[in-house]
Amino acid sequence: MPKQKVWLVIEKNVYGDTQTFSVIKHHVSIEEAVKYKVYLEALNDRKNQTYFLASDTDTVMNKVITAHNKSVNMKEVA
What we know:
Blueprint: E1 7-15, E2 18-27, H1 30-43, E3 49-54, H2 57-77
């Protein structure tokens, strides 16, 4: 039986040099995930908060690891 894909709606918050990521919602349907993300973006009044979709934990982890490595590199340069 094929594994069912789950779509994650991820919230990203930036506070100075720090970034946090949270799974806000998960959906089996890409249409529902996109709709939820669009609603969140429409209601969002914070400049430091953004949303994106990920289809699996590898996608999320790649974003988190890349952001972390960039943050560490910036601290080492300063």
